[in-house]
Amino acid sequence: MASQFPRTYDFKRIEENAAKLWKDKGVVEKAISFDKKKPLFSFLEGPPTANAPPALHHVEMRTIKDLVCRYKLMKGFTVPRKAGWDCHGLPVEVQVEKKLGLKSKKDVLNFGIGRFNSLCRADVFNFIGEWDKLTDKMAYWIDLKEPYVTLDNSYIESVWWSLKELYMKGLLYEDFKVVPYCPRCETPLSSHEVALGYNDVTEPAITTMFELKDAPGRYFLAWTTTPWTTPGNVALAVHPDVAYAVVEDSEWPGKQFILAKDLVAKHFKNPVIIEEMAGEGLEGKEYVPLFDYFVGKLDKPAWVVTAAPFVTTDEGTGIVHQAPAFGEEDYGNCKQHGLAFVQPVAENGTFTNDAEDFAGLSVKDADQLIIERLEKDGLLFSKANYTHSYPFCWRCSTPLLYYALKSWFIAVRKFKDRLLELNEKIDWHPDTIKHGRFGDWLANVKDWALSRNKFWGTPLPIWRCGSCKGEAAIGSVKELKEKADSIPNGELDLHRPFIDDVKLKCGKCKGEMTRVPYVIDCWYDSGAAAFAQFHYPFAKGSRELLEKHFPYGFIAEAIDQTRGWFYTLHVLGTLLFDNLAYKSVVCAGHVVDESGEKMSKSKGNVLNPWEMFGQVGVDAVRLQFCTTSPEMPKRFSAALVSEGVSQFLIVLWNSCYFASEVLAKAPSARDFPNATEDKWVISRVNSALVEVEEALGRHEYHFCVQALKSFVIDDFSRWYIRIIRERASSPDDALHYTMRYVILRIVKALAPFAPYISEEIYQLLAREKAESVHLSEWPKPEAIDAVLEGEMAHARAVVEAILSARDKIQRGLRWPLKRASIVTKDEKVKNAVRKLAAIIKSQANVKELTLSDEFKESKKKVKADYSKLGPVFGSITPKIIANLSIHGTSAIMNHIEAEGSFRLEIDGQMVSITREHLITEIEIPPNFAVVQSTCGEVYVDTDMTAELEAEGYARELVRHVQQARKEMGLTKEQPIAVTLVIPQQMQLLKNAVSESAADVKLKVGAFKLEIAETRPEHGKFDSETVARIKGQNVEIFLVKG
After folding, report:
1. Residue 231 lies in a domain
2. Dist CA 520 CA 89 (whole Å)
3. CB atoms within 10 A of CB 244
């Protein structure tokens, strides 16, 4: 198989080959099936909604989830993975409404709930084919044949079971509260849904004047950023302990104003305080309402001042306008004080006929008209634009209202301490989420507004008696059938409108019970996946399955799910099972373009995943998502991929192609590696494996990719293969073993990240018993020799220093150097150079190496580096520089080498000067070049003898002939005849060829090598090349053997 390894990296061919293998061998099914013999690693898939095509950010999340599951499978776990589809709620309803041109709840009712929900059911599967196709293409291995689907009756039944459990515990209750509310969708939202849709907006903020009933001309000043709420005003609130003042100002003749004393200067240019009082002294004061819409129509007090501790003087006037229909604190304060409740706004967000001047207007559209009306009536003190963060509907982008209405809630707040306690046991990635974004959210948790005044969703299974108002919670289909008078038409679809027609007989008064007209928050559906995917507790074996899987070992989604799915899973796990829902969670950052800008259609920077797959391949796309820390934004473009991970894959492929030529030579025996370079590369690949596994354990996938790239490119391709290139030209059992060993470990470690190329290389070069690399065992690190790795690092540093010296003197690597002298006092460096001298000589092309503590032909001089001293020592830097000039170079450097620093006393202060604070200048003889390196100082003798020059010519010639062979497409085994036409003035080259003919012939695979005076006749050669060597043209003619 190794001999069939293709020369070029072609990701399309690789993907086709691997996909066919997986299909033919049933590899995916074997990977995701449950194996009772193995320990379980439980994973829970967050369900997407398939009413839109999958996007690039879905590839990001699925890459993370897939690589973790693949790794755990290779580590010996069974990792069943069930797909899931989220089918209910606003995301679906809003989309169907748009398609139908429906703009309100009334429109849906006129259209028909049954017809509407049928279209919603169909819509959620509109793009399931595209999702399946993408899932298959990106090699996200998950069970698509038996997914959990939140619209299935079995799933809904499990959700009903959980809701009844909460109801029976007294945790599911109905109440009249102010809740976040979408006027376009005409439904309340939960606090975690609200958190998904904040945007900065600039709106009018006004300060209004409320005239005291018993003191005409005296006004309370109250500030608000929601002018539209003023028709619903019922009270004003002051802080009982804050100092308030009555103020006059010449700009407002005949008027007096009451506001917090500390804020007077903020609102008046020429204030005169004529009276002061504490807030409690204002309590009970009556004022004239801004609008008279409800005057004489209320059965409770209104338009009075209340004392409330939530009032602050941070902004505004220290007096807060109270509209109980539109504010949670307003409602609670007014209810506590026994005040009236007024509601001038309908559920569609327009003013009712009560607010006759604005009837039918959207509240936001009425803002300006209300301001104009207040100004006309002389009740507008000031107005200004105000920029603040405001919530919008997470599905339709309509500005939300805070709106009082009757809803069903889950009593989450009373579990705050337990939620926080269990959060401490979760392994968050990044860990800052635990006590930051998620922990803060839990610390301020609110009861869950569960019910939705909508149509397509899991119906709330609460029935209420029309006679005695008694309630019943239904927790199963069986219970429903037992208590129902009948099932209309014999059908059992648990959705609306069918379930609305199911009537129960009241257990108390025998009256008829009707279901309350709500569906539930679709986030509850997805949060119930932990147990509902098994049809718990009804399906046979579901209890055992949940016990094994729960809490789940791993989940992962985008970081915004801390307020979404992560939160609902955690709440339901706590309230239903008093346990974690998941042990480990990865929060991934969003995908951005190559400039770091958020991707959006309006900016035109959204990338299609299929286009990316076609341009750079699936493996490269997956790897790109693993090049930065998971929680960080992922910069993405085809150019970034091509410049980065694609180059890594190409280097890997080219290295494996080279290895395939080694592996094509069948070993005569299993000869364990004894060469130093073989032992080193075996040690290094295992060290890289350790790095990958440790980073996987920390969910730092970018470090995994860095470790693999570093090994493949720097260690394997640019170093090891360079060293063994000549060995590879003939059969070498130890080399054969080493190559296969290293490649097998590379592809296994790479398999979770780049499944296609790993599979192809495994099948072609390193196949074991396992029919797929993804079904093989994760390799155990072994044979790590840290000392040898350290020695090789020193040797490489010496080689790099010599190569840097070559750059200085502009002498190519093919032209040998006479001598290199390494000057160091580091014994580890000296030992490494002695032990690995042969490798250093061959890789640096140097004839001789010497070691010493000093290079006697050189002179050193050190001087202060002001740019380094200044930032550290400030004003005393000039004195330090002057002091250093007094001491000799050797004295300073001896101290630094012996003690790590040179100490000086400056103005009674001891300062330590290190090597970093100094600039070292070295004077050397003209025939030497020097480079300072981590290994010490490396001096290169630049003298070029005739012998060295001849060798250089020969090496140059070999390179050009080998390039010509490559261009002809010849294999190493195909022999050639070489004819050279060398200019008369290049006698050295002629001599070099003549003296080393045998060696040149061996290296270029030639059975014949001759120097001719003139070029061969046309037609008598297969290849013609003109090589430029030392400024002269050398003609090379090749004939195939």
Report:
1. yes
2. 8
3. 26
Please say whether the beta carbons of 209 and 381 come within 8 A.
yes
Whether 416 is catalytic is no
| Token representation of residue 651 | 């280097």
H/E element holding 585? strand 584-588
Number of domains in the chain: 4
- Show the tokens assigned to 729: 């030209």
**Which of 38-52, 638-652, 820-834, 928-942 has the weakest average pLDDT?**
928-942
At 732 the three-state DSSP class reads coil
Residue type, 93: E
Q: Among the options 141, 394, 463, 565, which is catalytic? A: 565
Closest residue by Cα to residue 937 from 853, 863, 831: 853
Please say if 719 is a catalytic residue: no
Identify the active-site residue in 523, 653, 680, 719.
523
Structural domain for 1003, as ranges = 946-1040
Angstrom distance (rounded) from CA 664 to CA 3: 5
Question: Could you say which of 297, 598, 825, 1008 is catalytic?
Answer: 598
Q: Same domain for 229 and 319?
A: yes
Q: Are residues 906 and 951 in the same domain?
A: no
Is the backbone of residue 524 left (phi > 0), alpha (psi -120 to 50) or beta?
alpha
What length is written for the chain? Answer: 1041
What whole-number distance in Å separates Cα of residue 980 and Cα of residue 695? 55
Mark whether 86 is an active-site residue. yes
Alpha-carbon torsion 551, 552, 554, 556, what sign? negative
Which one of 376, 601, 780, 966 is the catalytic residue?
601
**What are the C-alpha distances in Å from 206 to residues 271, 351, 371?**
20, 20, 8
Catalytic residue at 990?
A: no
**CA-based end-to-end distance of the chain:** 26
Indicate which CATH number applies to the domain containing 311.
3.90.740.10
Let me know if 583 is a catalytic residue: no
Q: Does 824 map to a domain?
A: no
Candidates 22, 47, 131, 709; catalytic one: 47
Question: Which entry of 66, 86, 367, 447 is annotated as an active-site residue?
Answer: 86
- Catalytic, 425? Answer no
Phi/psi-derived region of residue 60, left when phi > 0, alpha when psi is between -120 and 50, beta in every other case: alpha
Q: Which has the minimum average pLDDT: 298-302, 356-360, 506-510, 855-859?
A: 855-859
**Both 217 and 317 in a single domain?**
yes
Q: Is the entire prediction scored with pTM above 0.90? A: no
Question: Are 248 and 330 members of one domain?
Answer: yes
For 647-660, how does the pLDDT look when each residue is reduced to its tens digit (9 = 90+)? Answer: 999 999 999 999 99
Residue 47 catalytic? yes
The answer on 906 and 957 residing in a single domain is no
Residue 811 three-state SS:
coil
Amino acid symbol at 351: F
The per-residue b/e assignment along 596-622, b for 16 or more CB within 10 angstroms, e otherwise, is eeebeeeeebebebeebbebbbbbbbb
Question: Which of left, alpha, beta for 529 (phi over 0: left; psi -120 to 50: alpha)?
Answer: alpha
Q: Which residue stretches of 578-728 are H helix?
A: 609-616, 618-624, 638-643, 645-663, 676-697, 701-709, 721-724
Same domain? For 332 and 237 the reply is yes
874 and 966 part of one domain: no
Residue bearing the bigger pLDDT, 196 or 261: 261
